[in-house]
Amino acid sequence: MSLNEANLEKRFNMVSTSAGSIQSLSSLCLHYKNHHKRIAQIWLRCLQKAKVPHRLTLIYLANDIVQNAKRKNSVSFIEDFKTILKDTIPYLRDDKIRKSVERVFSIWQDRSIYDSKFTSELKNALNNTGRPANNESTKSTTSTTKDPTQAQQHQPSNDLIECLNRLAGIEKNVDNLKSSSDNVVDKLAQGPLSNGDLGDTKVMEDMRLYLTALKSEIEERNRLAKLLEESMLAQKQLLKESESQLSMYRTQFEQIVKLRDELG
Q1: In Å, how far from its chain's centre is CA 44?
Q2: Which single residue of 21, 87, 106, 205 has CA 20 to 30 Å from 198?
Q3: Rounded to the nearest 5 degrees, what angle is found at the Cα of 176, between the Cα atoms of 174 and 178?
Q4: Considering the entire predicted model, what is its pTM?
Q5: Euclidean distance between CA atoms 83 and 67, whole angstroms
Q6: pLDDT digits over 2-52, tens only?
């Protein structure tokens, strides 16, 4: 399948910070996975030409692409972006976006998109320093290790919120595509498409975008179901631990009361 580079560049330049806009374009890029290297190069060129706020939007887009590529085991996208990410650093040092970009780098390390050595190099270059970058994820891990119960409480909640936000954006994107292509949806519901429909480029493109969005929605709902199941198991474990602690404290309290009565 050929890649319309001019159209892709236009979409890179027009993508907004909304979850639906980013996820739709991310899905399109992954659909053309055979052109992964060229897509990464066009993305870099657009970022280098973009105004400061839009550079951050393109970083968010890259984040969505590499995270979904990891889920789908599409290593090529991850490696192609890795080869060009250091070229983006001079364009990301503006104080308006630098901290947000650094948080994205931390997410890549936390989720094992890229290893800690590479993300530290990105952070050092971003902050223009040779000192080791502050490893927020290490601090977080250290603090939560001291209190594993707290880690179990908060991590599933963060993942659930993020998943729900993604799902809301995907649902909005599906609704938008449906409202703009009701004719295609009606045709799909009625049965096989005619030869005339199959030869209509717009009909086929609308159908592809709609089906891709539906597939993303199904995948995200499955991910949400898994997170809910994991969260339920974690909460049951927390409840069990809390009940055990309550029993222990009650026993200690009764012993103290008994000792106080004996002492008179």
Answers
A1: 20
A2: 21
A3: 65
A4: 0.52
A5: 16
A6: 888 899 999 999 999 888 889 899 999 998 889 999 999 999 999 999 999
